[in-house]
Structures are given as C-alpha cells and as structure tokens.
Design a protein that fits this description.
Length: 443
C-alpha cells in the first residue's frame, strides 16, 4: 500500500461520519503519489497525517432573538485548517446544510486553491447552519452580531480573514464587520468582500468569471490558439457565468448558451450581456425572459447546454451539473476544452470520461481561483490603506491566472502526465504547502 493509500484508508475509518471530507481528501491525496515518491522525507515527517488534520476547529453556539421575540439557537464553526503559507483565509457559509464535514472539505480544498495563486495566504472555512432566506434584515443583523461576538476573538488581519460564501453576501459582511470593529476597536482588513466605500476591492465582482476565461486563454495559447472565433457554451447566469460571458466575448468568442436552475438559452448570435444582466441582476427574473426578449434565441426547459456543439465548455452554475451523458455529448460534438468556473460542477464519472477521451479538463481548484486571488489583493490594499484602480487589479488577476496555469501545467509534465491539469493543480498546490510545513518543523 502506498503512503497516500494508507492515509486515505485511515481517514475513511476515522471520519466515516464525514463523507464530503473523506471524498475531498481522497481525491487530492489520490493524485499526488508521484510527488510523494520523489520526496520520501514527507512520509518520515508524517506530513500527510498532519496536513489532513485542521490546526484548529472552533465550534460555538449562536443564540439570537427573532422578530417575534423568540430565542433561536444555531451552531457556528470556524475551521482554521492550515497556516503554513499565511493567515487562514476562506469564506463563511450560512446554510441549513452546514456541518463539520462540509466545512472541513471546503477548508481542505481551499488550502490548495490558495497555494496555487502564489499569494501568501493559508486555508480555512466557516459558517453556521443558519438560513438567511426568509429572515428580515433585523434578524440577519442580530444573527451576524451574535456570530461575530464569539468569532472576533479568533480572527484578525494577520490571523484569520473570513470572506463571503453561500448565504453570506455584502449585507452579511457589513453586519459582521460592524460588530468586529465594535468589539476589537480596530479598523482592519479582517473580512474581505467589503463594500467599495469601506475597504472593498474593485474588480472583485468580475474576478472569478474573468479569471476562468483568462485560464482558458492560457490553455489555448499553449496550443497556439486563442478564444477569438471559438464557440463557447457557458452554464449558469449568476456572478461567475455573467462575467465569464462578458470576458469571453471581449476576447472574440461566440458565447452560445447560458442557463439557470429552470432551463437554458441558445443564442446563435452570441449572448447579449446587457440583456442578461438586466434579466438576472436587475429584475432577478428567469432566464426564459431573455429568450422572450431576444430575437433568434431559443429557450429549453431543464439542463442540456451540452447539446449545442462547441469548442469550449464552461460549467459556471453549481456542483455536479455536468453528468456523464453531458460529457459524452461534448466528446461526440468535438469539444476540446472544459474549464470549470463553478466548484465541482463535473461529476467524477464525467471527469474521467473527458480525460480518457483526450479533452483538456481544467478543474475549478485552478480555474476559478480568481475570486480568492482578488480577495487576497483586497487584504493587500487594506494593509496599504490604498485602493487600486480596476485596471491594476485586473492586470494582477491576469498575471496570477497565468502563473496558476503554468504551475499546474509544469507539475503535470514533471509527474509524467502532460496536459493533466487535475494532477498538475493538486501536485503544484500541495508541494508549496508541503515545503513550508517541512521548513517549519513538527507543528
Ligand atoms: P450565483 O448564485 O450568483 O449563480 C448561480 C447560478 O447558477 C444561478 O444562475 C443559478 O440559477 C444557477 N443554477 C443553480 N443551480 C443550477 C442548476 N442545477 N442548473 C443550472 N443552473 C443552476 O453563484 P455564483 O455565480 O457566485 O457561483 C457559481 C458557482 O461558482 C458555485 O459553485 C460557487 O461555489 C462557485 N464559485 C464562485 C465564486 C465567486 O466568486 N462567486 C468563486 C469560486 C467559486 P437561479 O438563478 O435559478 O438560482
């Protein structure tokens, strides 16, 4: 049994009740054995055994009063997973499904995603099983204040810097920041995703979608190609999808599709971003409204953007949205490149088929790291007490995506699997963290 297999088996036994965490650790550890073979000193230092245990987990009760005057109690968490290369950083998720398994899975993934960006930041994740949907602003504010009343003593600009995630947007970050400032008596960049008038970064909104398209361009550039004239199918119609459409079109691509949870739209003339934003961002409507208002476009119920032949496919909606049948359709139609804008949108079976059939597959861990990269740039701006221009942030984002791409590509080459960005991203992210952990002794 190899070193990684042994640690995976131990994890499966010890954390049988944490399926998401076991799945994520197995996926990463299962692909880095070539790197472990080159570094036998990692096993002697029990590096993997240390890497899979969070440095610290904070669990706490979050009591708050609802509008009817009743006391409600939720469970709050912060998983401070790894600080080998910098202060912990990762989003807060407020959703009824939140539990320790999900937060440990997300925190573990975050370590490698951030490591790949080349920025000096560690990995963490947190949240609560609180559902902001259907709550009044006053209830959300009281919940956030209670949550921060415990969390504030564990975080700080040089210790742990949370951000938003599902259920935690600008409103929640505002309430959390206000309470932190009051308790700590410090105005510091302790949270990212802040508003533009109080420490937020320009280009953060665009960062994930733009970054994924920059990644696609870097992959194509290596093959002597570009996005200019390519047919691109994008799924989703939210933050990541909208800005992926915008950037791909700026680079000369024909973007043919977008989707939401009810259906998808095919627009042979190319998606009109202005109308897309009007329908989804302003009216918060359904994607079918786009087709009603845009001549020549067609609306289809359900999933299925993969039915339209394309050169590049970018799933930017949600987890497990691209199943095996979709991957088969993409292969048959000659799609050569899949770039994940969302987190884990491709099922394992679909991923394996795409890799087998020679489709270049770029995992979200590498391709959607633009968002966290610009969050780290927000921290830099806060430390400097400056706000950079949109163009400056965008230029840095482009440079970061290029270095993520090159690192993943080179690591895949060194492992003898050229073009395999899954192995490349895992190995490149891992080696940087492993090197820092080795240098810092047994801690
Ligand atoms: P949004 O909530 O802004 O948008 C999600 C979009 O996906 C919505 O249009 C939604 O439709 C659609 N959608 C949801 N479920 C389905 C489904 N089953 N089939 C088709 N479409 C669906 O989220 P984001 O754009 O911010 O995030 C998208 C993904 O990217 C997530 O996986 C997220 O974790 C990941 N991500 C986001 C980052 C960011 O900076 N925003 C950073 C890194 C990763 P509807 O309008 O009907 O709800």
């Amino acid at each position: 049994m190899s070193y990684s297999e042994r640690v995976i088996a131990q994890l499966a036994e010890r954390y049988a009740g944490q399926p998401e965490f076991v799945q994520a650790t197995s996926e990463v550890l299962g692909s880095i054995q070539p790197a472990l073979d080159r570094h036998p000193e990692f096993e002697e230092a029990a590096l993997l055994e240390r890497l899979v245990e969070p440095e610290r987990i904070i669990m706490f009760r979050v009591p708050w009063l609802d509008d009817a005057g009743h006391v409600q109690v939720n469970r709050g968490y912060r998983v401070e997973f790894n600080s080998a290369i910098g202060p912990y950083k990762g989003g807060l998720r407020f959703h009824p499904s939140v539990n320790l398994s999900i937060l440990k899975f997300l925190g573990f993934e975050q370590i490698f995603k951030i490591s790949l960006t080349g920025l000096p930041i560690g990995g963490g994740k947190g949240g609560a099983d609180f559902d902001p949907k259907g709550k009044s602003d006053a209830e959300v504010m009281r919940f956030c204040q209670s949550f921060m009343t415990e969390l504030f003593r564990h975080i700080g600009a040089d210790t742990d810097v949370p951000a938003g995630d599902i259920g935690v947007g600008g409103r929640e970050i505002g309430y959390l920041f206000g309470q932190y400032k009051r308790l700590a008596n410090r105005y510091e960049g302790v949270l990212t995703g802040k508003g533009l008038t109080w420490g937020g970064s320009l280009a953060r909104t665009e960062a994930t979608g733009y970054g994924a398209v920059y990644f696609a361009s870097d992959v194509l550039a290596d093959k002597g190609e570009s996005l200019d004239g390519k047919r691109v199918n994008i799924t989703g119609a939210g933050n990541v999808a909208t800005y992926a459409v915008q950037k791909a079109e700026q680079l000369g691509a024909l973007v043919q599709t977008v989707s939401d949870s009810t259906g998808w739209v095919y627009d042979p003339a190319g998606i009109d971003v202005k109308l897309l934003r009007e329908v989804k961002e302003v009216r918060r409507g359904r994607i079918s409204e786009y087709a009603q208002e845009r001549e020549g476009s067609v609306y289809h119920e359900g999933a299925g953007c993969w039915e339209v032949p394309c050169d590049v496919y970018m799933p930017c909606a949600t987890q497990n949205e691209l199943p095996l049948e979709g991957a088969k359709a993409l292969v048959e139609a000659g799609c050569g490149l899949v770039v994940e804008g969302a987190n884990m949108p491709t099922t394992l079976k679909a991923t394996n088929l795409l890799l087998e059939k020679g489709v270049t597959f770029c995992p979200g861990k590498a391709a959607n790291a633009g968002g966290v990269a610009v969050s780290a740039l927000e921290m830099s701006q806060n430390s400097e007490r400056l706000q950079w221009t949109f163009e400056e942030v965008d230029e840095r984002l482009k440079g970061i995506m290029k270095s993520i791409h090159d690192n993943a590509r080179d690591a895949a080459d060194e492992c003898g699997v050229p073009g395999n960005y899954v192995v490349g991203a895992n190995v490149a992210g891992f080696l940087k963290v492993a090197d820092a952990m080795m240098a810092q002794g047994i801690v």
